[in-house]
Design goal:
Largest sheet: 6 strands, antiparallel
Distance between the termini: 74 Å
Radius of gyration: 22 Å
Low-confidence stretches: 24-34
Number of domains: 1
Shape: globular
Strand order of the largest sheet: 7-6-5-4-9-11
Mean pLDDT: 83
Number of helices: 4
């Protein structure tokens, strides 16, 4: 039986475009891979001395490949992202506050200690990975907005998320992060309502 006739494309497609489509299809497939979950234990906002304070607790467990990469000197970057919006029926939601922090977690084989640094701070050292996970997974009374920015008795939507930032991994590990759920840690977006 002869093969079916090939239908011509309505327009010629260069090889580079075909390769780009294949890469996009692979990325789309990889995006469907489930990420290991960081559990959100608690998240709350409160007003104290004119500040809106954020407190949250995450439970992050490193997967064996991430633990091994860390022990071999590959630093891991964890991001905590927060957003506070006021829903409006007549227009897009009003963004009241946005805050994020990135923790760089590294391991020193000589001292056998973990180090957590954030921004320009020198960093804090820990003896165990459990202590690191507790430190990184805890946001304690962090000011995210001024109380005068909020409308009393209005309903606000708060959202928080913690994730491993795979874009800051070395290039070979970024490929692993795209294709394997063991290289992805994400809490997903945790939402709750807040009324001042």
């Amino acid at each position: 039986m002869p093969p079916p006739p090939r239908l011509p494309l309505p327009f010629p497609l260069p090889r580079a475009a075909l390769r780009a489509l294949v890469v996009l299809a692979l990325l789309w497939t990889a995006a469907g891979v489930r990420a290991d979950v960081i559990a959100v234990r608690s998240a709350e906002l409160r007003i104290e001395e004119g500040d809106v304070l954020l407190s949250a607790q995450f439970e992050a467990q490193l997967t064996p490949p991430l633990d091994e990469a860390l022990s071999k000197g590959i630093p891991l970057y964890f991001m905590v992202e927060f957003e506070l919006t006021r829903p409006r029926w007549y227009w897009v939601d009003e963004k009241v506050a946005q805050w994020s922090i990135t923790y760089r977690v590294s391991y020193n084989e000589l001292t056998r200690q973990y180090r957590v640094a954030s921004g320009p701070l020198a960093g804090t050292t820990f003896d165990t990975l459990e202590d690191v996970q507790r430190f990184v997974g805890r946001v304690s009374s962090r000011p995210v907005a001024r109380a005068e920015q909020l409308v009393k008795s209005a309903r606000y939507e708060a959202a928080i998320r913690m994730r491993l930032d795979a874009t800051q991994l070395p290039k070979p590990f970024q490929v692993n992060a795209m294709t394997s759920h063991e290289w992805q840690l994400d809490s997903g977006v945790h939402r709750w309502s807040f009324t001042p």
